[in-house]
Amino acid sequence: QCVSVCPTGALTEQTARPEIWNALFDPDKYVIAQTAPAIRAAIGEEFGMAPGEAVTGKLVAALNNLGFDDVFDTDFAADLTIMEEANEIVERVTRQENLPILTSCCPGWINFLEYQFPDLSHIPSTCKSPQQMMGAIVKSYYAEKLGKKPEDIVLVSVMPCLAKKYEAARPEFAPQGVPDVDHVVSTRGLAKMIKEAGIDLATLEDEDFDHPLGESTGAGVIFGVSGGVMEAALRTAYETVTGKQLAKLEFKQVRGLEAIKTTTVNLDGTILRLAITSGLGAARTVLEQIRNNEVQYDIIEIMACPGGCINGGGQPSIHGDFSLIEKRRQALYSEDEGKALRKSHLNPSIQKLYEEFLGQPGSEKAHRLLHTHYFPNKDYSEE
Ligand code: SF4
């Protein structure tokens, strides 16, 4: 058993590799992988490649070589998260109700909130994390397209994170007893599987994600860094609210590795007060300020790991080397800059998903599949 300590200080890693190998060798199962944005900026380090060298195409090739039937990108689900979250932000800010709204894609911090700040569990966004949104869509929309039952599909998440394992196991994410996400493997765990299969990731030719759930924009890519969810949401919220195109996509004031960043943005006359935090110490500081009415923010992004998921507990070399984290950060911003589409609402596969299946952001179906609720005083780390 692989055991390593999560930087949140709360969780230890248990490997899912045997179950994943069994699924890959089971002829009756259709096995799908999804990979989070931070994986591509770090897994190359396990194969002697330079820190920060993005290996997206080689990662996809390795997953195809392992025998996955489809390889999807969690960045697609990050784009979907932005569609739902930007809609929720606009609604709550317009009505000036239940503010600040807190981002909800980091299960490490959601677990912390439920246990440490139960009185504030009504303010996070109700959006599921990208991992869980992908699971819900794979086991409904995509299962229908494949003509398969949800229980015949096995969805494996490759995550930089140990808290994602606990998130996938939450009972509310297993409708009718079938989990939306079946197994979660960390970046280090996937590197072990690739080595167990005798594959050298560094020598593989690039391959593309499968469609439709592999198509993503630059906004989805930057979910892996502190400030990325905020920036992605602002790109879509601005264009939704104003009907105008953003002249400049980069919101550089929300970027950086500082534990707490505060700023304001002017969305065509609407001033939004923002805070971006990473690390649970910083989260505690900001949450105590909110509890004591010492600060007024409209939107807050919180990530449990300092610097965001690029520094997650499942990544290689988690020893607080911030020069390495900086290189991973730059890798994701470079991938964003290189994308033809950089705003979530312009992702054609997302647009098709709403046309064919979900209706509008915030629809009854979108709420049933893509939103959740929180449980005050719940401490999943003790289970
Ligand atoms: Fe997981 Fe850390 Fe990312 Fe939160 S910030 S989702 S705990 S890797």
From TrEMBL:
The keyword Transmembrane does not apply. GO terms for molecular function: 4 iron, 4 sulfur cluster binding; ferredoxin hydrogenase activity; iron ion binding. It comes from the Bacteria. Keywords: 4Fe-4S, Iron, Iron-sulfur, Metal-binding, Repeat. This is NAD(P)-dependent iron-only hydrogenase catalytic subunit.
